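Box 3.1 A note on notation
Throughout this textbook, protein chains are presented in two layers. The first layer is the amino acid sequence; the second is a token string describing backbone geometry. Keep the layers aligned when reading.
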Amino acid sequence: MSDNIVYKWTDGSNKDFQEFYKKTEEYYSKIVGGIEKRRAFVPYNHSDGIPNVLIAYHGDVAVACAGFKPYSEDDAEIKRVWVEPEHRGKHLAKDIMKQIEDKARVNGYKRAILQTREIMADAVGLYEKLGYSKIEKYPPYDNLNGAVCMAKEL
């Protein structure tokens, strides 16, 4: 794990996680050319109901996060993987993903699934390096243009 980073488990109602949610919404809208081009995705990306959230802190400052929620009896859906730009390249996303996967496994899930977008090449590359493979789009993303779904056996 990265030096001087403390990881804390919480849930989607955490104020730091809610701040990340706002940042990710702004970022996603920017990279696709505006909120109108992703309006169909928004209803499926609310973060307050995510029961398992991991936040990385550098001192008192939240610098990265991810969460997971039940998708099915066997599948945990990973949501909101984010690392602040000035903390990228320090393996925080990799560290968080490993801890998310470990907790999902301990909670009885057999597979981790996630949805991203092809335009997010760095994210797709990270997930592939971590052992995720592209799968057929799952609901509610199955009819959304630009969605990429991935999975990894736990």
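The chain has a mean pLDDT of 89. The CA atoms of residues 24 and 30 lie 10 Å apart.
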